Amino acid sequence: PTHTFENLPPGRYAVVVIHDRNNSGQLDRNLLGMPEEPVGLSNYTSISISNPPTYRKALIDLKESGLLKVKLNPF
After folding, report:
1. How does the average pLDDT of the chain come out, rounded?
2. How far is the C-alpha of 75 from the C-alpha of 66, rounded, in Å?
3. What angle do CA 42, 40, 32 make, to 5 degrees?
């Protein structure tokens, strides 16, 4: 699936994609706080305890229109 954001002005953005499998409206997590549903962030190819997501690391610089692919990590 794809989603298009139109008319975004140049700037810094962080993108988070969550596949809410059970339509609960939130990201389900296990007892350790790790996602139990697929999640992806800009600038991340994998997410793990040794590579936790942060806003700063997920930031991208949008200078003009373009395509950004975000990989969902299967949890």
Report:
1. 85
2. 28
3. 125
Closest CA to 43 of 19, 64, 67, 15: 15
CA of residue 52 relative to chain centroid, distance: 12
Residue from 30, 62, 58 nearest 45 by CA: 58
Total-model pTM? 0.71
With bands split at pLDDT 50, 70 and 90, how would you rate the model's confidence at 35? Answer: confident
Residue 38 CA to residue 17 CA, distance in Å, equals: 8
Contact status, residue 36 vs residue 73, Cβ threshold 8 Å: no
Q: Are 39 and 20 in contact (CB under 8 A)?
A: no
- pLDDT band (50, 70, 90) for residue 3: confident
